[in-house]
Automatic annotation (TrEMBL):
<keyword id="KW-0662">Pyridine nucleotide biosynthesis</keyword>
<feature type="binding site">
    <location>
        <position position="256"/>
    </location>
    <ligand>
        <name>iminosuccinate</name>
    </ligand>
</feature>
<feature type="binding site">
    <location>
        <position position="167"/>
    </location>
    <ligand>
        <name>iminosuccinate</name>
    </ligand>
</feature>
<keyword id="KW-0479">Metal-binding</keyword>
<dbReference type="InterPro" id="IPR036094">
    <property type="entry name" value="NadA_sf"/>
</dbReference>
<keyword id="KW-0963">Cytoplasm</keyword>
<protein>
    <recommendedName>
        <fullName>Quinolinate synthase</fullName>
        <ecNumber>2.5.1.72</ecNumber>
    </recommendedName>
</protein>
<keyword id="KW-0411">Iron-sulfur</keyword>
<dbReference type="Pfam" id="PF02445">
    <property type="entry name" value="NadA"/>
</dbReference>
<feature type="binding site">
    <location>
        <position position="299"/>
    </location>
    <ligand>
        <name>[4Fe-4S] cluster</name>
    </ligand>
</feature>
<feature type="binding site">
    <location>
        <position position="213"/>
    </location>
    <ligand>
        <name>[4Fe-4S] cluster</name>
    </ligand>
</feature>
<keyword id="KW-0004">4Fe-4S</keyword>
<feature type="binding site">
    <location>
        <begin position="150"/>
        <end position="152"/>
    </location>
    <ligand>
        <name>iminosuccinate</name>
    </ligand>
</feature>
<feature type="binding site">
    <location>
        <position position="124"/>
    </location>
    <ligand>
        <name>[4Fe-4S] cluster</name>
    </ligand>
</feature>
<feature type="binding site">
    <location>
        <begin position="239"/>
        <end position="241"/>
    </location>
    <ligand>
        <name>iminosuccinate</name>
    </ligand>
</feature>
<dbReference type="InterPro" id="IPR003473">
    <property type="entry name" value="NadA"/>
</dbReference>
<feature type="binding site">
    <location>
        <position position="61"/>
    </location>
    <ligand>
        <name>iminosuccinate</name>
    </ligand>
</feature>
């Protein structure tokens, strides 16, 4: 009798969980087994309840796993899109389902909100490649040149920056900075490959830093050739943090937002996304009917964020990310300058004809 009552209670609880998670299942079922799903569904239901209790929103980056991206993300997208949504939101608490520099950017744009990250170890090889002190030395070496900094940097670096950029607007920002400062060269840091790929798209001279994303630097032109041989009909899309010869061998290059737009608009039969693995899984959930083929590389930092630590983060209100006010104020100016530029009509694409021509870059 007791067992029957317990079974009944469990069944009632599962029915409640199903009511609030059934819409998520079709988007994640290719990446979650039916055996795993009840545990994940319970966590998703619990997190969504906790968000309401805490007046919180979850910002989920494109590289989060599909259970997070489709199950608990209130806003999904690239790092800058997320930070802008954070600033627009009325919620008191922001949970950054992403890496530490993203949480800092959210705090910079939303100083009055509590910003939490579920795992403080979620770092980034690119952000770790440079410090504010390095930028001060670069400025001393190239006086009078504007410093354009990729958003994948710490607040300390942003504070030394004239204007930030993303992979979606880097060419536009570089050309704007050269015109504003009346110069023919700009400093574009810290991603060496992004800088090289931008240099191929503009006549503005680029001075670059040797930082790299450990996920994108591993792709090679040989990987692309292997994919073409194995899947002759597949369309190959590369992220501009990849080496130049990878872009030159691809069919399309653009930011994660541009890739999503491309797949949603063209619906190719087979597609290869040369970027972090979860990106393909997440786009697949929104664009059924397209076959996504590897290779891809996992970002170990992004993968530190899980449903379990998001739940714990909301229960314990941990781990808060703060930025000293004077640093935040200077960093905000750099981010805000970029935000104030007119947005491109569509997420920027890299012209692959230009990408096939080598352009010299001065590497610091
Ligand atoms: S994918 Fe690359 S740039 Fe993004 S967090 Fe991971 S290491 Fe950093």
């Amino acid at each position: 009798m007791e067992a029957t009552m317990a079974d009944g209670a469990a069944m009632a609880r599962w029915t409640t969980v199903q009511d609030v998670t059934d819409h998520v299942w079709p988007k994640v079922r290719d990446h979650v087994t039916p055996m795993e799903w009840p545990v994940q569904a319970e966590l998703i239901a619990e997190i969504n309840r906790l968000k309401a209790d805490r007046d919180a929103v979850i910002l989920a980056h494109n590289y989060m796993t599909p259970d997070i991206f489709h199950g608990v993300g209130d806003y999904v997208g690239d790092s800058l899109g997320l930070a802008k949504e954070a600033a627009r939101s009325d919620a008191k608490v922001i949970v950054q389902a992403g890496v530490h520099f993203m949480a800092e950017t959210s705090k910079i744009l939303s100083p009055d909100k509590t910003v939490l990250i579920p795992d403080l170890r979620a770092g980034c090889s690119l952000a770790a490649s440079i410090t504010g002190a390095d930028v001060r030395l670069i400025k001393a070496r190239y006086p009078g040149l504007p410093v354009v900094t990729y958003v994948n940097t710490t607040a300390d670096v942003k504070a030394e920056t004239d204007i930030c950029c993303t992979s979606a607007n880097a060419v536009q920002v570089v050309e704007w900075a050269a015109k504003e400062w009346g110069v023919d060269r700009v400093i574009l840091i810290p991603d060496e490959f992004l800088a090289r790929n931008v240099a191929a798209q503009t006549t503005v001279g680029i001075i670059a830093w040797k930082g790299r994303c450990e996920v994108h630097e591993r792709f090679t032109a040989a990987d692309i050739a292997d994919m073409r041989a194995a899947y002759p009909g597949a369309e190959i899309l590369a992220h501009p943090e990849c080496p130049e010869d990878v872009l030159a061998a691809s069919d399309f290059a653009g930011s994660t937002a541009a890739m999503t737009d491309y797949v949603a608009g063209r619906k190719p039969k087979q597609v290869v996304l040369i970027t972090e693995c979860s990106m393909a899984s997440n786009v697949a959930g929104d664009v059924p009917g397209v076959q996504f083929i590897g290779p891809c590389n996992l970002c170990p930092h992004m993968k530190r964020i899980t449903l379990e630590n998001i739940r714990d983060c909301l229960i314990n209100m941990q781990f808060e990310v703060t930025v000293p006010e004077d640093m935040a104020e200077r960093a905000r100016l750099a981010v805000q300058r970029m935000v104030d530029l007119p947005p491109p009509a569509i997420p920027a694409r890299y012209d692959l004809f230009k990408a096939r021509h080598h352009v010299a870059v001065e590497l610091i």
